[in-house]
Amino acid sequence: MRVLVMGTGGVGGYFGAQLAQAGNDVTFVARGAQLAALRERGLHVQSDLAPVQLARVNVTDNPADVGVFDIVMFCVKLWDVASAIEQIAPAVARGGLAIPFQNGIETHKTLIARLGAAHVAGGVAYITVAATAPGVITHTGKFAKLRVGVLAGATSASLSEFVASGKAAGIDIDTVADIERALWEKLVFLAAFSGVTAAARQSIGALRADADLRALLRSSMLETVAVARALGTMIDADYVERQMQFVDMMPAAAQSSLLTDLAAGRRLEVQWLSGAVARMAHAAGVAAPVNATLYAILKPFADGNPRRH
């Protein structure tokens, strides 16, 4: 199977490496120091679950140079979505399928508007991972899974082949019947985990040990569930409590990529996480004061460290 990994950060690097190691024809798209490192030294995935060392990888900074693909794993940062879609359009022109594995719940709609529904499926990645140095991906914890699903008009045959290839590569991947619900369920957790860890500048261990921060995390999740329900996606009544149980099982040192980016002075995806919950809540007439506050706190850092006046 020919797979294009559009965006070789944590998610794209980790799962792309697993597919490549299993013998799939994988091409990574990268730029800057990451591109140079992949060309010179290959790709190294540090992981207790599934470490990979690829001495050589197929890599490019221009997808137009490498032909058409069966699957495009769309893994760019959310502020790069518009430009990245234009880059991958030729790659899926002959029946390929683009699957976004990003934070937030809106990218697949943007992809459909540009590529057409037949060329887009839904995807959710569950993993704590980051690009920690050029050519190095670091995975934390013991879980790493993908869930995919057919959207209206998508070709299930291509999706089924991708799932089969992933399973053969040892990836925990499955098809779900309601991918929209899966996307919302991830947002419930991720908006809270990202927003509270970043606002408090603390790892998950510190959050769950502090009664006030733990309550803040839970309240953020409950708000997102309320927004999802107001917009027509039903989430189980006990879902938040199950997520809090999951929080208690996470490695104490785990922190969100939002906090990692904040500490490094990089751009933040906050407007597509807490900001998106607050925006959609306002449009639906639902109260979401926790997410609105988290967004307000982090918004000055959305474009990187703000200038001091």
**What is the structural class?**
alpha/beta
The tally of strands reads 10
Q: How does CATH name the architecture of the largest domain?
A: 3-Layer(aba) Sandwich
CATH superfamily of the largest domain: NAD(P)-binding Rossmann-like Domain
In angstroms, what separates the terminal alpha carbons?
53 Å
User: In angstroms, what is the radius of gyration?
Assistant: 19 Å
Return the average pLDDT rounded to an integer: 94
User: What ranges have pLDDT less than 50 throughout 5 or more consecutive residues?
Assistant: none
CATH class of the largest domain: Alpha Beta
Task: Domain count, please report it.
Answer: 2
Shape designation: globular
Total number of helices: 12
Beta-strand fraction estimate: 15-25%
Main sheet, how many strands, which sense, barrel? 5 strands, parallel
Structure report:
- The chain has two domains: 2-177, NAD(P)-binding Rossmann-like Domain (Rossmann fold, 3-Layer(aba) Sandwich), CATH 3.40.50.720; 181-301, N-(1-d-carboxylethyl)-l-norvaline Dehydrogenase, domain 2, CATH 1.10.1040.10.
- Helix content is 45%, strand content 19%.
- The radius of gyration is 19 Å and the shape is globular.
- The chain contains twelve helices and ten strands.
- It starts with a strand and ends in an 11-residue tail after the last helix.
- The longest helix is centred in the middle third of the chain and has 22 residues, at 179-200.
- With 309 residues, the chain is of the alpha/beta class.
- Strands 5-2-1-6-7 form a five-stranded parallel β-sheet. Strands 3, 4, 8, 9 and 10 form a five-stranded mixed β-sheet that branches.
- It has helices spanning 10-21, 32-41, 81-88, 107-115, 156-168, 179-200, 204-209, 211-230, 239-249, 257-263, 274-284, 289-298; strands at 2-6, 25-29, 43-46, 52-54, 58-60, 71-74, 97-100, 122-133, 136-149, 172-175.
